[in-house]
Design goal:
With 116 residues, the protein is α+β, with helices and mostly antiparallel strands. It has one domain. Helices cover 32% and strands 23% of the residues. A hairpin with a 5-residue loop joins β3 and β4.
Length: 116
């Protein structure tokens, strides 16, 4: 009986260990209501932009573009982070400014070229 309990505890510990070591902001996914720091939002926006480039949804030229402006704005439901990227060399002038929106804690909401 003692061996069964030890085996069970060992297996359950091994099973839950990855969850225990997961970081609070791993992959830019956050819980709670505490507003994220501007640097955190900037980093998450860059990661999201790079993912869009990698998936082919954005032109490869966007890879080198850094966030130009980060601000807290009033969204449709509440406040949200608005991150602006500007590619002055864009061929299509309607797509020279990319906007990304994040919740106050830093979770991605949407991205577009309209800013709405």
């Amino acid at each position: 009986m003692k061996k069964i309990i030890v085996a069970f505890l060992t297996l359950s510990t091994a099973f839950w260990t990855p969850v225990v070591f997961a970081s609070a902001g791993g992959s830019c996914h956050f819980h709670g209501n505490k507003p994220a720091a501007e640097a955190t939002v900037s980093s998450c926006a860059s990661q999201r932009k790079d993912a869009l480039v990698k998936s082919g949804k954005l032109d490869a030229a966007w890879s080198a573009v850094k966030p130009e402006k980060i601000e807290m704005v009033e969204g449709k439901k509440s406040k949200e982070w608005k991150v602006t990227f500007k590619d002055a060399a864009a061929k299509d002038k309607t797509k020279e400014t990319l906007y990304m929106f994040f919740t106050p804690p830093g979770n991605f909401i949407a991205s577009n070229f309209t800013g709405q």
